Amino acid sequence: MKHFTCVQDIGNLQEAVKEAFEVKRTPFRWDTLGKNKTMLLIFFDSSLRTRLSTQRAALNLGMSAIVLDVNQGAWKLETERGVIMDGDKPEHILEAIPVMGAYCDVIGVRSFARFECKETDYREVLLNQFIAHSGKPVVSMEAATRHPLQSFADLITIEEYKKTARPRVVLTWAPHPRALPQAVPNSFAEWMNAAEYDFAITHPEGYELDPAFVGCAKVEYDQRKAFAGADFIYAKSWAAYADDAYGKVLSQDRDWTVDAEKMALTNNAYFMHCLPVRRNMIVTDDVIESPQSLVIPEAANRVVSAQTVIKRILSAMKKI
Ligand code: AN0
Ligand code: CP
């Protein structure tokens, strides 16, 4: 594997999950693979889990990890080519990226959708600039349209807890006061479809996701109907995707909050969320604190997904 930005990059999912379980069982078995190698983690947006779990994964493989928060101490970066740079941005991304590439062996990048231009977001302009100009393998730590390290950890978690070969997994939209990217739900849908689970998505009208990510998933506008018989409930808020409402919050309807009454409609489903989560907007206190809540093991599996991905990248570098 060279870069890791989407489900296709990981190849066969069963093999990837098997390898992830091995990494989980024996995390220090490959602790010299990354000797004298450095991972640079670049954050254009905030993070708790990704920042810590990806560093931990690199350290488990014997790498060094360095972190740059672009908005805290680095020069403000111009991203448009052809701009006369007489404003407040002293450095261009087209110099910054190869310079960052010169200081490391593997690069992780976090940059959310900006919601300024749908086409720019969905073309993954920034992530692709890193791939084109850094000269190093690039790992998406949540880009504009996907969050593959999260989705891989979600898949590992479902594989650990599922009671049937093909569980019924339901992604539900939930209310939130701010406009959030579609990266987590897009990516989750992409991985659930690839895993060939019985997968459904439920959301209010107007919150339709990009059909390229929805794929063959069933879309159900009645949340209670969607919950019936579910084995896993995966909650997430996202802003509208449609052209005329892109990046907008259309509803904060708390009737969509995941609560005990709705969880009672499921097949004693596990509750999942990528975190950070706003309690009593997305999910009630009692559901997130219930024994069916997987949010902490799910977050813990972020080390496992990151370590499996970085391990594969390092192994591929050795072969060159
Ligand atoms: C981000 C999002 O919704 O994409 C990160 C989630 C991992 N969440 C927030 O900004 C609250
Ligand atoms: N789930 C996740 O990616 O969390 P952070 O935004 O804290 O990294």
Written overview of the protein:
- It is a single chain.
- The protein has 320 residues and is α/β, with parallel strands linked by helices.
- It folds into 2 domains: 7-146 and 302-319, Aspartate/ornithine carbamoyltransferase (Rossmann fold), CATH 3.40.50; 150-298, Rossmann fold.
- It has helices at residues 13-25, 49-60, 93-102, 118-122, 125-133, 148-161, 183-195, 211-214, 223-227, 260-263, 285-288, 295-319; strands at 38-43, 64-69, 77-78, 91-92, 106-110, 138-140, 168-173, 198-202, 218-220, 232-236, 270-272.
- The longest helix is centred in the C-terminal third of the chain and has 25 residues, at 295-319.
- The chain is globular, with a radius of gyration of 20 Å.
- The relative contact order is 0.16.
- The structure holds N-acetyl-L-norvaline and phosphoric acid mono(formamide)ester.
- The site of N-acetyl-L-norvaline has 8 residues, from helix 7.
Q: What's the number of structural domains?
A: 2
CA radius of gyration is 20 Å
Q: Total helix count?
A: 12
Instruction: Give the biggest beta sheet.
Output: 5 strands, parallel
Assign the CATH superfamily of the largest domain.
Answer: Aspartate/ornithine carbamoyltransferase
Q: What does the overall shape look like? A: globular
SSE topology string: HEHEEEHEHHEHEHEHEHEHEHH
